[in-house]
Design brief:
Layout (H helix, E strand, L loop, with lengths): L16 H22 L3 H24 L5 H28 L4 H23 L8 E3 L3 H17 L9 H14 L4 E3 L12 H16 L1 H41 L6
Antiparallel strand pairs: 1-2
Helix pairs in contact: 1-2, 1-3, 2-3, 2-5, 3-4, 3-5, 4-6, 5-6, 5-8, 7-8
Length: 262
């Protein structure tokens, strides 16, 4: 009679507490942002999304530094990201600006959530396949930060209450589509802040921090919006460069064959 050995449930060994606490903090921030959006506290909702972004960046780094990465942590992080950077900014965008557009408003918000979920699913299956130095499509935290900082910029410039404008509708659609696109974005994962850097690099960082502290809403929106544009701009540059090289190739071959006199 054969005896079957069942693999011991890995969950019985427990989970790593510290990185998952930061993931939970990110999830809590996203959930609170949803509550704040429903209550009409749009600025608070936007800030809590950015706070969730900070916690989301810390959980992975802490897990790698303490060597406490796990499959459970990765899955939990993805679920938390969907709430904090998919559902929360979609609810914020809907209550702040999209509600007046009727069904097109809530459909646009739903598109943002769906594209965010697809972006996370694609990222999970492409880990170890796509170069880690780039993201395949706009990362969902970056997409959420564009929405959040746009709200903060609106109130910084003197806006009050809701903002019913088509630019928010089209902007939300564009951000959603960029998340599921194949446009490449720099991931910043190869940056090593513990390594020695040139002295002027440190001075430049200090200057940037001073400017951000002086005008946080304006500067954070500029960085987030600029990053969202960097992918399409870089793609257009590469396509234009490739077109120029393809145009120069026939001339170069003809010169080598002696068909064109210099």
């Amino acid at each position: 009679m054969k005896r079957y050995r069942f693999r011991k449930d890995q969950m019985k060994k427990g989970i790593y507490v510290l990185p998952n606490l930061f993931t939970t903090a990110s999830l809590f921030s996203g959930f609170y942002s949803i509550i704040a959006s429903i209550k009409g506290m749009y600025e608070i909702a936007a800030w809590t999304i950015l706070i969730a972004l900070v916690f989301d960046g810390l959980d992975g780094r802490i897990a790698r530094m303490t060597r406490t990465t796990s499959k459970f942590g990765a899955e939990y992080d993805s679920l938390a990201d969907l709430v904090a950077f998919g559902v929360a900014p979609a609810i914020l965008s809907y209550h702040w600006a999209l509600m007046s557009f009727g069904k097109w408003g809530w459909l646009t918000a739903f598109l943002f959530v769906t594209c965010g979920a697809l972006r996370l699913a694609r990222f999970n299956v492409q880990v170890g396949v796509v170069d880690s130095k780039v993201f395949n499509g706009l990362a969902i935290p970056a997409g959420a930060s564009v929405v959040a900082t746009a709200v903060l910029l609106y109130f910084k410039l003197g806006g009050e209450g809701q903002f019913h404008h088509l630019s928010v509708l089209f902007g939300t659609v564009i951000i959603a589509l960029l998340m599921v696109s194949s446009v490449k974005y720099y991931s910043f994962k190869d940056l090593n802040f513990f390594a020695r850097k040139p002295f002027m690099s440190f001075v430049l960082i200090i200057v940037i921090l001073v400017i951000v502290v002086a005008e946080p809403q304006i500067m954070i929106f500029t960085f987030c919006f600029g990053y969202a544009l960097s992918g399409p701009v870089w793609l257009m540059y590469k396509l234009n460069r490739k077109k120029q090289l393809d145009h120069e190739k026939p001339v170069h071959h003809q010169e080598e064959a002696g068909l064109i006199k210099k």
